[in-house]
């Protein structure tokens, strides 16, 4: 009996949403790596043709580079893997809303889809500080999905900053 009710609610979840959670879990794994390296825990993965072609996490501290955001590092890896600056059929999954620099890179790379977890009230350039894609005139607009594994994505960030504060 319990099983049948579980099954019916399970069937209500659209297939595509299940895929999104699956890839976001991988991005969260990258965020955990960042956390273990004492970096702000943000993780990203790029999916192309149903396959992972790049995984990266924030490495600003390790590289001493202001631009070493998870999204930028993932885009660079994907460019290298595909052998093209265009990532037309690829999707970027990132645990936190991208900043203005990363949104710029997403437009430049012509990514087909952007999926992110939690909003970033301090740097977010999709829905928070500015809403870049509400501006008309860009050469490229990705499809955007937000709020995938929002709680998990936000918890890991909160945990990191709480730990920093308590140090
Ligand atoms: Zn960024």
Quick overview:
This protein is of the alpha/beta class.
Describe this structure in words.
With 167 residues, the protein is an alpha/beta fold. It is 46% helix and 18% strand. The chain is built from six helices and five strands, in the order H-H-E-E-H-H-E-H-E-E-H. Strands 2-1-3-4-5 form a five-stranded mixed beta sheet. The longest helix is centred in the first third of the chain and has 22 residues. It is globular and about 45 Å long. The termini are far apart. The N terminus is likely disordered. The structure holds zinc ion. The site of zinc ion has 6 residues, from helix 5.
Whole-number mean pLDDT: 91
How is the quaternary structure best described? single chain
For the biggest β-sheet, the strand order reads 2-1-3-4-5
By DSSP, the count of extended strands is 5
Secondary-structure element series: HHEEHHEHEEH
Give the names of the bound compounds. zinc ion
* Gyration radius, in Å: 16 Å
Instruction: Report the portion of residues in β strands.
Output: 15-25%
Biggest pleated-sheet summary: 5 strands, mixed
How many alpha or pi helices?
Answer: 6
Structural class based on helices, strands and sheet pairing: alpha/beta
Q: Span between N and C termini?
A: 50 Å
Helix content: 40-55%
Silhouette? globular
Could you list the spans in which at least 5 consecutive residues all have pLDDT below 50? 1-9
């Amino acid at each position: 009996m319990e099983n049948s009710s579980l099954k019916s609610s399970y069937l209500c979840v659209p297939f595509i949403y299940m895929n999104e959670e699956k890839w976001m879990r991988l991005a969260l794994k990258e965020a955990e790596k960042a956390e273990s390296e004492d970096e702000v825990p943000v993780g990203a993965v790029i999916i192309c043709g149903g396959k992972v072609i790049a995984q990266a996490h924030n490495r600003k501290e390790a590289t001493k580079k202001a631009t070493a955001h998870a999204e930028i590092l993932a885009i660079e890896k994907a460019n290298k893997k595909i052998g093209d600056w265009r990532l037309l059929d690829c999707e970027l999954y990132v645990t936190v809303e991208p900043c203005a620099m990363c949104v710029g890179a997403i437009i430049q790379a012509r990514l087909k889809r952007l999926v992110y977890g939690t909003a970033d009230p301090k740097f977010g350039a999709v829905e928070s500080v500015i809403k870049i894609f509400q501006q008309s005139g860009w050469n490229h607009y990705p499809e955007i999905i937000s709020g995938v594994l929002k709680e998990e994505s936000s918890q890991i960030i909160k945990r990191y900053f709480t730990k920093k504060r308590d140090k």
